[in-house]
Design goal:
CATH superfamily of the largest domain: Ribosomal protein L6
GO molecular function: rRNA binding; structural constituent of ribosome
Family: Belongs to the universal ribosomal protein uL6 family.
Helix content: 10-25%
Number of strands: 13
GO biological process, one term: cytoplasmic translation
Shape: elongated
Distance between the termini: 49 Å
Protein name: 60S ribosomal protein
Number of helices: 2
CATH class of the largest domain: Alpha Beta
InterPro entries: Ribosomal_uL6-like, Ribosomal_uL6-like_a/b-dom_sf, Ribosomal_uL6_a/b-dom, Ribosomal_uL6_CS2
Largest sheet: 4 strands, antiparallel
Strand content: 35-45%
CATH architecture of the largest domain: Alpha-Beta Complex
Length: 190
């Protein structure tokens, strides 16, 4: 069954400007700019109350289209959080015998992982655009990934995790690797 009109609104906080043009949402805040394309969705995006609220409409939408309203609002909310607070993922180096050696190169945009399970191979992971990686000062064997776009930060963390998979061994016993230990925003600690 199709609903005639489904709509949802969200508040835009102070200090953040949102621009909508042909289903492309641009969010600008104190930490920078982020854009997201919603052209694949059959939704109407509109700024109301002088740019203080964003309204998303779906005319004659199926259940999938109606569900996409909330999803698109969540994506815009993530963009707003990114340009105001920023995202921070923490990863831990886990090893039983051979200590993993991680060196950060290319001005915090690349990581080289050495001595994983005693292997001589150097694993190199480039961070995605806008993601910075550095070692934690307080905690030993901890990496910190910072960025504005939650999807790029989490994908960079996933790329690091995937580079350190144990092959041809019992993964219940060989737990070595680099794992995400904490997710949050940059401003939570400061």
């Amino acid at each position: 069954m199709k609903t005639i009109l489904s709509s949802q609104t969200m508040d835009i906080p102070e200090g953040v400007t949102v621009k909508v043009n042909a289903k492309i949402v641009k969010v600008e805040g104190p930490r920078g700019k982020l854009t997201r394309d919603f052209k694949h969705l059959n939704l109407d995006f509109e700024l109301i109350e002088g740019g203080k609220k964003l309204k998303v409409d779906a005319w004659f939408g199926s259940r999938k289209t109606t569900a996409a309203i909330r999803t698109s609002i969540s994506h815009v909310q993530n963009l707003i959080t990114g340009v105001t607070k920023g995202y921070r993922y923490k990863m831990r180096l886990v090893y039983a015998h051979f200590p993993i050696n991680a060196s950060i190169t290319n001005s915090n945009a690349c990581i080289e992982i050495r001595n994983f399970l005693g292997e001589k191979k150097v694993r190199k992971v480039d961070m995605l655009e806008g993601v910075q990686i550095f070692r934690s000062e307080k905690v030993k064997d901890e990496l910190v990934l910072d960025g504005n776009d939650v999807e790029l930060v989490s994908r960079s963390a996933a790329l690091i995790n995937q580079k350190c998979h144990v092959k041809n061994k019992d993964i219940r016993k060989f737990l070595d690797g680099i794992y995400v230990s904490e997710k949050g925003t940059v401003n939570e600690e400061a």
